[in-house]
């Protein structure tokens, strides 16, 4: 049994870098985004261009064989064996849950404020069965009464910073010196404040996972019907209710999914997107509140969003309801971040 | 296959009414608290004393046979057949989800503000196969942008009001003329404001159900271990975090259950009660906020709590953290409320 691995063409979007064909340039780095449920492997050339990408379902909780039976080696060989066969001496960098206590080798968290040098200083190396050393990027911990942790997002954040207009992926000054707000929607959505090129603080919202649990494992799911197409109006209605009634809390507003249905004000196929709007709206209301404590107005921010396009577009719509109209999507943050850290760590030299 | 039905002795607690022995007094009323997952049947004498109680798992979603095959009749006969065999002409009153669209007969909601007369006016009758008419109490709807509904709790609320000191269950003035706050913790916790003996408005918090979903169906459950005994300190810690960080919202604070564990500040067997404190704390923070909108201070209220003793005691502790020290438990609210409505409906005459 092995995880499914597929080759995929990079979506270039508005990226100005030319699409590279595998084999036409010399490979210089393998970099892995290795999370809980998936493994994405990138092959870079010496200029930081992505030559090839392989995606597998072999996340650390979904290895082809158990970890104690060599599951990490099996997944790594499956994803990267072809590349290493062609270019045996390639350096390898990995970020994400692969560095957690349940990962291949634990890379202890570095604490906020965390810059790229701290991440590089926290890299640990695990030797694969095939003899290759895999450098593992540490996660970031924000200590305190309500600690926060991230693994993988730190790499995407520095990738997003390097994608700023008028910056260059290999330019040390790219992260800039002013504060930036970066959002990473998803199962456990993260919002990070970057100051002076360091992750100063961040917040985690269990938005995606709570939405899934509410939909599948509470009474709310019983009357829901999946719509044929995403229902933006129902989504925005949910955001609006969360924004106006935020202080009542999600425990209270969530029940309106049911009562609006009972009173025939919300059709079954509007309920999934309405609830999605509610939970994302509560996330943004919470974000607005924690930013306000430090005298930062969410409406005045121009957040960079990292994640699946459709989800990020929803966040843009939701943010606009909070008066925050400057949000924009950043693509290829993961690859850019991996490359950037590899350069800083001396695994490759910036061209 | 039938639902399990058991006789049970009433817990008299601090109730000053004498325990009555079945058979020593004349039965005058059967009253049912018929919810989603259970059916509780009470046999009253003409003075409103409970002569006997039978408890069954035959809630409306758990009938002994499907509804369309006579499931309601089967459950009713199983619970009350013995009593009706002894006293065939007994009037029968039922409250709870039995009056919902999925129930025996739908009793359309009455709208807030809802007093006892409105409930009595909304009673519908269904004739059981055995020939007995069952009077079904309607639920209450609060219309609006975020509608709220209850079924069963309205009966408990009037029961609690009748249990006020210096009041009498059959006294029309018992509900008083001043505002009262009544809390009903549970799967879908309700908080009702009663003004001039009418349910003026109420709020629903999905506290119990969200706690269960977070524990069983998110990452938070993975590191939890059930404690040998309830951990009040961990519970109060959770309440405190919710109170201090309420504006960040439950989506944010819930994740601290995991991160405090990762940073060894919260042991696995402290996590369940900590999370319980978090969700109940967010409920109370939300309640405090919605009350404040109408210039009511939660701390100045003396809420009556209806529900399982251990859960109500937890709410008392949590409320005290919000400065609300006047909360007290009300027992036998269900029986009292059923009796009171039966009297008002003329099913029995108050002695």
From TrEMBL, chains A, B:
Biased amino acid composition, Basic and acidic residues: 1-17
Keyword field contains Kinase: yes
Pfam family, one: DGOK
Name assigned to this protein: 2-keto-3-deoxygalactonate kinase
Location of the region described as Disordered in the Swiss-Prot/TrEMBL record: 1-22
Lineage, highest ranks first: Bacteria, Pseudomonadati, Pseudomonadota, Betaproteobacteria, Burkholderiales
Entry keyword set: Kinase, Transferase
Keyword Kinase (UniProt): yes
GO MF terms held by the record: kinase activity
Signal peptide positions (record): none
């Amino acid at each position: 049994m092995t995880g499914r691995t597929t080759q995929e063409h990079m979506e270039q979007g508005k990226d100005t870098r030319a699409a590279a064909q595998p084999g036409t340039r010399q490979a210089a780095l393998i970099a892995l985004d290795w999370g809980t449920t998936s493994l994405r492997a990138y092959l870079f050339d010496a200029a930081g261009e992505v030559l090839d990408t392989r995606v597998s379902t072999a996340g650390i909780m979904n290895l082809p064989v158990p970890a104690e039976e060599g599951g990490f080696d099996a997944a790594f060989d499956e994803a990267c064996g072809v590349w290493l066969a062609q270019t045996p001496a390639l350096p390898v960098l990995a970020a994400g849950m692969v560095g957690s206590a349940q990962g291949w080798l634990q890379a202890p968290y570095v604490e906020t404020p965390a810059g790229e040098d701290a991440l590089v200083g926290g890299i640990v190396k695990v030797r694969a069965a095939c003899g290759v050393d895999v450098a593992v990027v540490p996660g970031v911990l924000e200590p305190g009464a309500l600690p926060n942790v991230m693994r993988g997002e730190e790499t995407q954040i520095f990738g997003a910073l390097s994608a700023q207009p008028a910056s260059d992926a290999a330019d040390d000054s790219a992260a800039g010196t002013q504060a930036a707000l970066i959002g990473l929607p998803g199962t456990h959505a993260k919002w990070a404040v970057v100051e002076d090129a360091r992750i100063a603080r961040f917040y985690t919202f269990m938005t995606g996972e709570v939405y899934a649990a509410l939909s599948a494992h509470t009474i709310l799911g019983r009357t829901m019907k999946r719509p044929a197409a995403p229902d933006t109006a129902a989504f925005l209605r949910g955001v609006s209710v969360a924004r106006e009634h935020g202080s009542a809390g999600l425990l209270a507003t969530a029940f309106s999914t049911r009562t609006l249905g009972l009173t025939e004000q919300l059709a079954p196929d509007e309920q999934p997107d309405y609830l999605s709007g509610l939970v994302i709206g509560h996330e943004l209301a919470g974000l607005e509140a924690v930013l306000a404590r430090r005298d930062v107005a969410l409406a005045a921010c121009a957040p960079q969003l990292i994640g699946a396009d459709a989800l990020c577009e929803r966040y843009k719509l939701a943010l606009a309801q909070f008066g925050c109209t400057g949000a924009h999507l950043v693509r290829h943050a993961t690859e850019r971040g991996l490359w950037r850290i590899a350069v800083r760590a001396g695994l490759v030299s910036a061209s």
